[in-house]
Automatic annotation (TrEMBL), chain A:
Classification of source organism: Bacteria, Pseudomonadati, Pseudomonadota, Alphaproteobacteria, Rhodobacterales
Record-annotated Electron transfer flavoprotein alpha/beta-subunit N-terminal domain positions: 3-181
InterPro entries linked to this entry: DHS-like_NAD/FAD-binding_dom (IPR029035), ETF_a/b_N (IPR014730), ETF_a/FixB (IPR001308), ETF_alpha_N (IPR033947), ETF_asu_C (IPR014731), ETF_asu_C_CS (IPR018206), Rossmann-like_a/b/a_fold (IPR014729)
Protein name: Electron transfer flavoprotein subunit alpha
Gene3D superfamilies recorded: HUPs (3.40.50.620), TPP-binding domain (3.40.50.1220)
Binding-site list for FAD: 201, 226-227, 240-244, 257-264, 278
Details of cofactor binding: Binds 1 FAD per dimer.
Thylakoid keyword on record: no
From TrEMBL, chain B:
Official protein name in the record: Electron transfer flavoprotein subunit beta
Keyword flag Hydrolase: no
PROSITE patterns the record matches: ETF_BETA
Gene3D superfamilies, alphabetized: HUPs
Its biological purpose: The electron transfer flavoprotein serves as a specific electron acceptor for other dehydrogenases. It transfers the electrons to the main respiratory chain via ETF-ubiquinone oxidoreductase (ETF dehydrogenase).
CDD domains: ETF_beta (cd01714)
Source domain of life: Bacteria
Source organism: Cypionkella aquatica
Cofactor(s) listed in the protein's UniProt record: AMP
InterPro entries per UniProt: ET-Flavoprotein_bsu_CS, ETF_a/b_N, ETF_b, ETF_beta_N, Rossmann-like_a/b/a_fold
Residues covered by the Electron transfer flavoprotein alpha/beta-subunit N-terminal domain: 23-215
Protein's UniProt keywords contain Iron: no
Family statement: Belongs to the ETF beta-subunit/FixA family.
This protein's encoding gene: etfB
Length: 308, 253
């Protein structure tokens, strides 16, 4: 039996990086079909069809599945489940919302945030904010899981799978979308950026956070934030990196004014190179940083911007 | 309207986690345990609904070892009215899986008939982020996950959800399951008089058999290891040296 991969589609656009990295994670499991759901997903379905390792794209062209509404989308996936041994998706807000619901409807236990697929039944996943890594073996007939994509390399777009239109149960009638408040930005997306510059409590205010953004723009980087910075209102919630925010593994992670609580480290410790700028030389962030600069960020960051 | 809030006893978020030598899991013997931080936010929100006159009673439920009574007493001291403990294991190292927890909660919901279930979006021990969604599926109710704003209006609730690109507002049909995120509220501390009063509040003790639910796990633990460590690197003395290292040594800019 094959693998059904649930694609993230936002406003008709495929979350290509997330899907391509999930494809890399499940490559050993065999044939993969990708589900693209929602009206206006034609282009997303076509893009998914090009990804290497995809043997078929299922396109459910129905308004009920727009905006990733969990109840309708889960019902659609459950209707397709009969033909699959594995049902999975990237561990995004969308799949974390939908796939546990799918698992319960199929009476199987979900496996969240898999960091490795060992074999058809066995998965590795971080627990306790990444302070331990557990290998679990599922006794369920079908496996439903999400993949933490940060450390996988995206598959290439050199395939040409067929796109098959499918129907589904339609609107579940339990919930309705009202609005999305998403900031548009020219910066790279946080979870796929090669460089991430993050600010913490030390940045001190929403206004000072401009400095972090300027450094990010100088480096062509995405902007991240610690929970403390988000809770203090310096940065929006979707910039949060950590146990309960996003997990990133860029080539370069620059932590500015971040002390380095374990909950934050959980979201960035797989970065290739970590730089920490903090005036407190005892800050735990220095224990994971490849390069540490003990300095006041308000003098060091402007100097860095100027000299880069 | 009655509000049901599931709470979990987990390792305190400040405690350094140690993996047991036999690889079966994390050592939880003689370490400080607390209420899962996300569940505290759910309890706080439930109490606020009662203070606003929207909720009439706040019932908290915990599933696990008998020591979870302490967690329930904390919730009662914060302001919950009554508690239910489902003693599902006598081993502090046994984590009852979200699917089993959801089945038990579904049975409690059928008995208690709450108008809303408020739960934490994830427990900070197994980090599964699944119980709310699974409970909603088993009941056939609507679900509102990762919620940072909640407004109940008659037969529907309008919620703001924290999603990857920012915030999403949806409207869900009541009754509903809400899984709460960090920024919904700041939980109160229980005052000493309330801690004393909580000792007299009702706490019922049940077992999974009372609800006819099998809590046997579906996942078996093959091994648990410490993550690959990361060594501290070097301290640089100036911005110029930092740039030079990043260019010449690391080659990342």
């Amino acid at each position: 039996m094959a693998v059904l991969l649930i694609a993230d589609v936002n406003e008709g656009a495929l979350a290509t990086d997330a899907v391509a990295k999930t494809l890399a994670a499940v490559a050993s499991l065999g044939e993969v079909h990708v589900l693209v759901a929602g009206t206006g997903g034609d282009a997303a379905a076509a893009e998914a069809a090009k990804l290497s390792g995809v043997s078929k794209v299922l396109f459910a062209d129905d308004h009920a599945y727009c905006h990733g509404m969990a109840e309708s989308t889960a019902a659609l996936v459950v209707g397709l489940a009969g033909g699959y041994s594995h049902i999975c998706g990237a561990a995004t807000a969308f799949n974390k919302n939908v796939l546990p619901r799918v698992a319960a409807l199929l009476d199987v236990m979900v496996i969240s945030d898999a960091t490795a697929v060992i074999d058809a039944d066995t998965f590795e996943r971080p627990i306790y904010a990444g302070n331990a890594v557990q290998t679990v073996k599922s006794a369920d007939a079908k496996k439903v899981f999400t993949v933490r994509t940060a450390t996988f390399t995206a598959v290439e777009a050199n395939g040409s799978a067929a796109v098959e239109k499918i129907g589904g149960p339609g609107e579940a009638g339990l919930s309705a979308w009202v609005e999305d408040k998403t900031a548009t930005s020219d910066r790279p997306e946080l979870t796929s950026a090669g460089i991430v510059v993050s600010g913490g409590r030390g940045v001190g205010s929403k206004e000072s956070f401009d400095l972090i953004e300027k450094l990010a723009d100088k480096l062509g980087a995405a902007v991240g934030a610690s929970r403390a910075a988000v809770d203090s209102g310096y940065a929006p919630n979707d910039w949060q990196v950590g146990q309960t925010g996003k997990v990133v593994a860029p080539q370069l992670y620059v932590a500015v004014g971040i002390s380095g609580a374990i909950q934050h480290l959980a979201g960035m410790k797989d970065s290739k190179v970590i730089v920490a700028i903090n005036k407190d030389e005892e800050a735990p962030i220095f224990q994971v940083a490849d390069y540490g600069l003990v300095a006041d960020l308000f003098t060091a960051v402007p100097e860095l911007i100027e000299k880069l | 309207m009655k509000v049901l809030v599931p709470v979990k006893r987990v390792i305190d978020y400040n405690v350094k986690v140690r993996v047991k030598a036999d690889g079966s899991g994390v050592d939880l013997a003689n370490v400080k345990m607390s209420m899962n931080p996300f569940d505290e936010i759910a309890v706080e929100e439930a109490i606020r609904l009662k203070e606003k006159g929207i909720a009439t009673e706040v019932v908290v439920v915990s599933i696990g070892v008998k020591q979870s009574q302490e967690t329930l007493r904390t919730a009662l001291a914060m302001g919950a009215d009554r508690a239910i403990l489902i003693e599902a294991t006598d081993n502090v190292h046994t984590d009852i899986e979200p699917l089993s927890v959801a089945k038990l909660l579904a049975a409690v919901v059928k008995e208690e008939a709450p108008g809303i279930v408020l739960c934490g979006k994830q427990a900070i021990d197994n980090d599964m982020n699944a119980t709310g969604q699974m409970l909603s599926a088993l009941l056939g109710w609507s679900q509102a996950t990762f919620v940072s704003e909640l407004a109940i209006d008659g037969d529907k609730a309008v919620v703001t959800r924290e999603v990857d690109g920012g915030l999403q507002t949806i409207s869900v049909k009541m009754p509903t399951i809400v899984s709460v995120d960090l920024r919904l509220n700041e939980p109160r501390y229980a005052s000493l008089p309330n801690i004393m009063k909580a000792k007299a509040k009702p706490l019922a003790i049940k077992t999974p058999a009372d609800f006819g639910v099998d809590v046997a796990p579906r996942l078996s633990i093959v091994k648990t290891v410490e993550p690959a460590g990361r060594k501290a690197g070097v301290k640089v003395s100036s911005v110029a040296e930092l740039i030079a290292k990043l260019k010449d040594e690391a080659g990342v800019i």
